[in-house]
Design a protein that fits this description.
The protein is an all-beta fold. It has one domain. It contains no helices and 15 strands. The protein is globular, with a radius of gyration of 14 Å.
């Protein structure tokens, strides 16, 4: 799902705290802390040091950091190690890496859908390690 990222994505930088709603057509990349609800028509990605205290509404979600809230109306959700989540996930497709913590409920929207479990083998690209590398 990373290739869904765009140069037009909204960005909350590491060390920043944003309180409020973020809504847009492009993606949202969260390296810092968001106290509110992100809503996007693209990818919402919460990086390892990022956190969201609110509900994410987007078709594509990648969580590596912390979420205290729900993921709503997603087509695809990926929890990458060391993701920590407390809330409900509503999605068509869910992938969960070993080492993630998920406390809550999962609603798979397709009758025959099952979560996919995997071992994290990817290493972050240098540009993904923080917002100060030109992202």
């Amino acid at each position: 799902m990373v290739d869904r990222a765009s140069d037009d994505d909204s960005l909350i930088a590491a060390g920043s705290v944003f309180k409020g709603e973020i809504t847009g057509k492009e993606g949202i990349r969260i390296h810092g802390r968001l106290e509110g609800n992100p809503s996007s028509e693209g990818l919402v990605r919460v990086y390892e040091l990022g956190s969201v205290h609110g509900n994410i509404r987007a078709p594509y979600v990648v969580l590596e950091g912390e979420l205290k809230g729900n993921i709503i109306s997603a087509k695809q959700v990926e929890l990458r190690s060391p993701a920590r989540m407390n809330g409900r996930i509503e999605t068509d497709l869910l992938a969960v890496a070993e080492g993630c913590i998920l406390e809550g409920k999962v609603d798979m929207l397709k009758a025959d859908a099952q979560p996919i479990h995997f071992k994290e083998k990817r290493q972050p690209f240098p540009a993904e390690s923080g917002p100060d590398q030109g992202t």
